[in-house]
Amino acid sequence: MALFGAFFLALLAGAYAELPGCKMRITSKALELVKQEGLRFLEQELETITIPDLRGSRGHFYYNISEMKVTELQMTSSELNFHPEQELILQITNASLGMRFRRQLLYWFFYDGGYINASAEGISIHTVLQLSRDPTGQIKVSNFSCQASVSRMHVNFGGTFKKVYDFLSMFITSGMHFLLNQQICPVLHHAGMVLLNSLLSTVPVRSSVDELVGIDYSLLKDPVASSSNLDMEFRGAFFPLAERNWSLPNRAVEPQLQEEERMVYVAISEFFFDSAMESYFRAGALQLSLVGDKVPHDLDMLLRATYFGSIILLSPAVIDSPMKLELRVTVPPRCTIKPSGTTISITASITIALVPPNQPEVQLSSMTMDARLSAKIALKGKALRTQLDLRKFRIYSNQSAFESLALIPLQDPLKTMLQIGVMPLLNKHTLRGVQIPLPEGINFVREVVTNHAGFLTIGADLHFAKGLHDVIEKYRPADASEPQTSSVPPTSTAAA
Fold first, then answer.
1. Are 23 and 250 in contact, with CB atoms under 8 Å apart?
2. Closest Cα partner for 216 from 43, 20, 369?
3. Is the torsion defined by CA of 395, 397, 403, 405 positive or negative?
4. What is the pTM (predicted TM-score) of this model?
5. Which of 445, 444, 442, 443 minimizes the C-alpha distance to 471?
6. Per residue in 171-222, pLDDT tens?
7. CA distances from 465 to 37, 263, 351, 406, 444 (A)
8. What is d(CA 364, CA 324) in angstroms, rounded to the nearest whole number?
9. Integer Cα distance of 222 and 228 in angstroms
10. Minimal CA–CA distance to 342: which of 455, 427, 474, 201?
11. Residue 249 main-chain phi, psi, to 5 deg
């Protein structure tokens, strides 16, 4: 009985699980690009390693090694791979590190000072990053483990007592070897848990699209990795800024991702667009009023001729009043995505009236408009843009079939007015686009849009418009400029 109850609860939870409006897949083909940019960033971070001063003595030999700085770093072999369930693994082998530091050496009564060049060779680094969703729906690095080792150290002494120093250098070399091993993982841990998370914080979660509407890109669950890709599911829902807690139930087809040929894929369902249009509807944006000179002259004359019988019965003060044409969407528009294309269905009311000065307006007619727009979706940079085109248009009266027949002469002029006066306004707004959730500095290139039944997919490659270092420096936390060894969690290890 208990087993049946648990099974029932699992089914119930699945039935109420929120469906994503947007999915994203990062494939293994993107990892080489990410690795190249990531290694450049890691090189810059590892070059900031500061090694504590090294002091000591051996018999009558006293030494003080200070001002140790990394001068160059070479990473000849590296791999970046996905690993189930939520992990990225970076393996660096046979790297080398060049250093320069100040020496102060005393042997009996002989003192020598100057600078020394040293190198660390056979450096191996193994790091594991675990990605997850935080309570706000933001993607983050939730865990970082590190193992690092240095195989060999070489110190090149110079000066008057070079042979003596070469004999005694093993004491200094072993100390530097130990200190360097202890510094690599803290620097990488800081880069992963602090700096990389500052980059991921630039991925939008809940942000404004304009002054009326915002978009919610909260992750619905932790990212899921396989051996070949990393999949993420986002809410992908718009909302009116005046009703931040409002949400449209998602009853659309769940978008699917099957492809792996490009670096990244984005899948967007009909719900994504429906929530946008309903949000603008609730915000009162889907209406247009043209009065007086705003009404095209030819249309104004046609409307006066069409309703001449009603106008002639009005008082002389009203007959020559400005014409008003009001278009108001009456129900939220809906999007339909098919393999053949994307369309948007709109139902609106059209009200025609005269507006005498300082008097109530006089309504001449009210009719219903059904329109169908074709939507061409494109992704440019990070902006998802839509180009709308009026395909079908019909007006009719709710009062009688006879009145609908009388409206036939208005059909083409009103359609022309929409094409010339309204569609450019809509496209000016929709072509601004809405951002797809990517970190700052990374853009999509070579995009291809494919329609399916109920959703569309966009395959693209990635391009770093800005270097990781530039973006991270922009968002580097003020109190996190220097990594601290003590910040490394117990799961991080530094192999000697």
1. no
2. 20
3. positive
4. 0.83
5. 442
6. 567 766 777 777 888 888 888 888 889 989 999 999 999 999 999 999 999 9
7. 11, 16, 49, 58, 10
8. 10
9. 17
10. 455
11. -60, 135
